[in-house]
Amino acid sequence: MATRALERVSDSDTLEALLRERRSVRGFRPDPVPADLLERVMDMAQLAPSNCNVQPWTAHVVSGEAAERMRTVLHDAAKSGTKMTPDFPLTGAYPGHYRGRQIDAAKSLFAATNVARDDVPARTESFLRNFRFFDAPHAMFLFIPAWAGMREAADCGMYAQSFMLALTANGLASCAQGALSHHAEIVHRELGVGEDQKLLFGIAFGYEDAAHPANAARTVRDKDHVLHG
């Protein structure tokens, strides 16, 4: 029993370390993730929980030429002002302290990348980097069935968290991106995904470019939980 208790402490420490290490990386090296490692990470993510074990997510990963084409067409669409076609309505202005957190995150990124508040071209270019998935060699596009609702979207979020933690555990970096769902019509077309599936969001991933200034940005976490009893 004592040995098992020590193992539990070790497991807890390892999990906490992974949770603290995982963060949104916005600068990647071009090196692709080896196919066997990518398969292992995705197998690990598939262990995520879901309501009634329906596993309502479908993950499409682009690499190589497919990734280059996807980043090109998405970037061009965003830069030219092509009308956005998200499968799910985009969130409007965040209210209250949620808006404050959004602003703090932006300030941290712009400070790290030396983008002035009134430098509109630089801010625009910073935003457009989303659509090139920050030069990551891979991007995952996460879909849920057209019939799905909030419960299934939450399930998909648990899969994404499991995937990103598995990446971290294997020395890889990631960034969950709502922006990759803005031009869903293009993503559907490029991936050959029918209307029976709806694009929720994407994840850029690969090896972190530690020298990229964007990766010096850090955000903080508040304690938004209430204990009863």
UniProtKB/TrEMBL annotation:
**GO MF annotation, one:** coenzyme F420-0:L-glutamate ligase activity
Instruction: List the Pfam families.
Output: Nitroreductase
Q: Name all Nitroreductase domain ranges.
A: 19-207
Q: EC number(s) on record?
A: 6.3.2.31
Cofactor(s) named in the record: FMN
Which keywords fit this entry according to its UniProt record? Flavoprotein, FMN, Ligase, Oxidoreductase
The protein's enzyme class: ligase
PANTHER family the UniProt entry points to: NAD(P)H NITROREDUCTASE YDGI-RELATED (PTHR43673), NITROREDUCTASE (PTHR43673:SF2)
- Protein family per UniProt: Belongs to the nitroreductase family.
Name of this chain's protein: Coenzyme F420:L-glutamate ligase
Source organism of this protein record: Sphingomonas jeddahensis
